[in-house]
Amino acid sequence: MSKHEEQQAPASLGTRLVRGATSGRARAIMSVGIVLGLGAVGTLAAWTDNATATSGVFSTGSIEMKLNGDPGDPTAYGFTALTKTGMMPGDSVTATLPVQNTGAAQFKYTMAATATGEAALAPFMKVTVLDQSCTTLIAGPVGLSTTAATPIITTGRQLAANTGSETLCFKVALDTGVLSAQQNKSINVSFQFAATTA
After folding, report:
1. Are 95 and 170 in contact (CB under 8 A)?
2. CATH class given for the domain over 65-197
3. In the chain, what are the domain boundaries?
């Protein structure tokens, strides 16, 4: 006989009876458990309720910048006070421009300038921005370009909602280093203001 094969002695009658009784009792207990479990599932009930909360109104505000009372959009404001013909090296001209916030939110604004006309003359036209009295420097002097917008007011200036306003003094000067080749030449300048919520 191989070592892996083992002989089992037949179970005695008593052992078979105990096994049968135990097995029958276990089946009976499991059957009762299943019946009770099914009964419990069948008798479960859930109470429910719900509630709803409704918010108030959400609405957007607005910002609106005006230049001397004109929105400047879609047609640019005519800043015709800032002009001078027959300029000589060292000559300058000044003009004031009110900037206003008539919208419902405060904002900060910046400003850039673009020149059109004689490209070689633009860098010699220097723009300076001062306060209303034309004495305190805000930005500049900065030479202009006909190929790209030149940032002038780069630090945002804040205006309060609804009635915020300040008057800027623009000074445009012809640099003393301008070349004689730029005689009888001209440019126009467009000032672009950009406002963002503060």
Report:
1. yes
2. mainly beta
3. 12-42, 65-197
